Amino acid sequence: MIAKLLRKVFLVDLFQGLWVTFRNQDPKRIYTEQYPAERPKVGERYRGAPRLNINPDNGETLCISCNLCALACPENLIVVTSQRNEQTKRKELTTFTYDTSRCMFCGLCEDACPVDALELTQDFELASYTRDGAIWDRQMLEEGPKPTQYKC
Amino acid sequence: MPEATFLDATELVINMGPQHPSTHGVLRVILKLDGEKVNGTECVIGYLHRGVEKIGENRTYQQFAPYVDRMDYVASVSNGLGYCLAVEKLLNIEAPPRAQAVRVILTELNRIASHLLWLGTHALDIGAITPVFYCLREREEVLKIFENYCGARLTTHAFRIGGLQYETYDGFEEEVKKFCDWFIPKVDEYEELLTNNRIWMGRLKGVGVLSAEECKEYGVTGPVLRAAGVQWDLRKAQPYSGYEQYEFDIPTGENGDTYDRYTVRMEEMRQATRIVRQAVDRIPSGPIMGKVPKVVKPPVGEVYVAIEAPKGELGYFIVSDNSTQPYRMRVRPPSFVNLQALDCMVRGGLVADVVAIIGTLDIVLGEVDR
Amino acid sequence: MADEQKPEGSPAPPPSGGEAASPMGKPATPAPKPAVPKPAAAAHAAPPKPPAVMLTTPWESDITELLKEHFGGDITEFSTYLGQSFLVAKPDAVIAILDTLKLDLDFDYLVDVTAVDYPKRADRFDLVYILYSFARNERIRVKTVIPDGYTPATAVTVHLTANWLEREVFDMFGIQFAGHPDMRRILLPEEWQGYPLRKDYGILQQDDGWVRENLGIESGQ
Q: Structural domain of residue B161, as residue ranges?
């Protein structure tokens, strides 16, 4: 009874809470990441900017224009056009349009691609100044976005 | 609409508009006040209505899965689990045991993340500014695990119909165990900050009382129902995805007031950690994907599957007509039904209590409006 | 492929049963007689026309006994599909059925009220009530079939949960509920025209129209 009254008068519960706050003031345990000075390390499987992969040996695109990614996309934002190569009797990719403004980065296109040509990389800096800048063509997809680097 | 003209001096109609830091989203509450006392409220919702059910009728079953995450965007893994379970039931298949174990781990981690966000924002609304930093710091760790597993932090799209898409990454078990060990002392820290604090108790005790009968009348489920004393949890009553193998308790409260909901959710975080520890110790080996046809065309029929999401009973009612797209995709959102009880809980209280009660119901407008 | 694995009960009366009904006789006996349904099965095996139906099995329990006693002909079907039981009732009897279920059989929690639109049928909407009983730990569905323009009675008198759920059904389908305290749109603005979840509400033309008007570009869909 007396203990309860003393605890009430001397604000023991409030000081208990304040002690928790003071414990966390250690400057070595600052949790904030200083972006853009240090770029965060995203996971390996991060679903970021799309990229069309190129065969490292001969520099040609890996895409076989099967159109499976376009069929898998819930938003129908991939448009693949191809033409038939008469010598090899195979389809060759001509244009590949990907609309990142409507993309939800769900990864269904990446899962659907049979040859690992389309991949969602770890780039997350995708901003652009215009609406049209968000619609990526084949060149942009192969090179990737090049955001401005800020050196602090 | 509340009928009051500005000449009526006793009653004031005030709009707690859609843009308000305490309404947890775009919720508009029209308050009828008598001074500081609340006589009645009316909720206007629909500011975040995106037509998810209509979209569902125009996408294939696999294509619809990313949309499901975006309803309750705080606990997207749970939404995904409910959807995959519903479609698997329609197809009459079951995910393999390894997939079920990993699903349980990720869903319980998601429950912890959802409750952490609830605690942070609820405390912030009441006025305690510190807990939100600590809760979000803990939540970062959970989101890092999700990012390493499936590539996205918030709208995860972690599960596929029939199992999992991704195998667990190297170091998954160690990271999850490390998180569990690191997390439990943090819950104790929050309890130290808040539970016996006289301001916290003064703001929360006796506020927004909803008895068990009223809960059942209004169809309120989840921690709100458990705080009223009803020991009911869908994970125990109708277990799914292997929950029957794990031991855990169902915390309940006594009075059904806001303080009890706080203690129930804190205890749920501890129990969720317990489930994760048990599950991660014995993940069976085996395939991660069941036998699902490439083109998912369930036979004609309808099914209703419900899971215990962090907010309550999340149900999917899917009607199929043997085509690749669902004929009707109905989502039974827990927050929508829980929000109905707001009017009943708020009467007779003060304006400041309205904020506390909206926070304690743990609503996410993405789910209320779909 | 999953069709054949399911336990075959007597198919429910509607459409495809129509052709095969005459050789099979009344589906009063639940056990499928192997000899007689064969011609029917052959007709089903290569069906150019009969629409596929839900392969339900009949449902019998103390719930069905009590309801049959009280309501008799008002309930047209008791079935189970994939372990989930439902009953189909006539629209006028639904509120009385919900009341009986709540008071006598402990189904005190109304989980959901929703509707499904079948525009090609004469009775266009399928109104579905999902109920759960805490005591029995069981979930059932009460379905009824109503035409366009019919106003079913509100369930608010039995379960308070139905308030917002019926408002949403009205908002999305246009089914008005008689006796509801506050029959207004809930998710869409008050002045919205049309009922989105009906099948004749085009999803793409709405998007194209709005985008063209307000953004001045062609929608990417």
A: 52-329
Contact A21 B130 (CB under 8 A): yes
Residue C22: pLDDT above 70? no
Q: Give per-residue burial for B335-367: e unless 16+ CB within 10 Å, then b.
A: bbbbbbbbbbbbeebeebbbbbbbbbbbbbbbb
Rounded to an integer, what distance in angstroms lies between the CA atom of residue A142 and that of residue A118?
A: 10
| CB spacing of C82 vs B303 below 8 angstroms | yes
Q: Where are the domains of chain C?
A: 1-54, 56-221
The position carrying tokens 């690992």 is A116
A76 within some domain: yes
pLDDT of residue B276: 92
Query: In the structure encoding, which two tokens stand for residue C210, read together?
Result: 């709005």
CB within 8 Å of chain A, chain C residues 67-96: none
Which helix (H) or strand (E) segment holds residue B42: the answer is strand B37-44
Integer Cα distance of B31 and B352 in angstroms: 12
Under 8 Å between Cβ of A61 and A54: yes
How many of the other CB atoms lie within 10 Å of CB of C164? 23
Per-residue pLDDT reduced to its tens digit, B77-116: 999 999 999 999 888 888 899 999 999 999 999 999 999 9
CATH code of A127's domain:
3.30.70.3270
pLDDT of residue B272: 92
Q: Give the C-alpha separation, C161 to B45, whole Å.
A: 16
Cβ–Cβ below 8 Å for A24 and B134? yes
Domain range spanning residue A98? 50-143
A9 touches chain B (CB under 8 A): no
Residue C178 and residue C150: Cα distance in Å, rounded? 10
The candidate with the shortest Cα–Cα distance to B146, out of B78, B83, B223, B71, is: B78
Give the H/E segment covering residue B98.
helix B97-126
Domain count, chain A: 1
Residue A44 falls inside a structural domain:
no
CATH number of domain containing B280: 1.10.645.10
Region A57-74: what's the mean pLDDT?
A: 85
Task: Could you please state the CATH topology (level 3) that the domain comprising C56-221 is classified under.
Answer: Beta Polymerase; domain 2 (3.30.460)
- Which residues on A lie below 8 Å from B193 (Cβ)? 17, 20-21
Cα separation, A112 vs B125, whole angstroms:
44
Residue of B nearest to A8 (CA): B198
Q: In what order do the strands lie in the sheet with B28-34?
A: B12-16, B28-34, B37-44
Domains identified in chain B, total number: 1
DSSP B287: -
Task: Give start and end residues of each alpha helix (H) in chain B.
Answer: 52-56, 61-69, 76-91, 97-126, 130-150, 172-194, 198-204, 212-218, 223-227, 234-237, 258-281, 334-340, 342-346, 351-361, 365-369
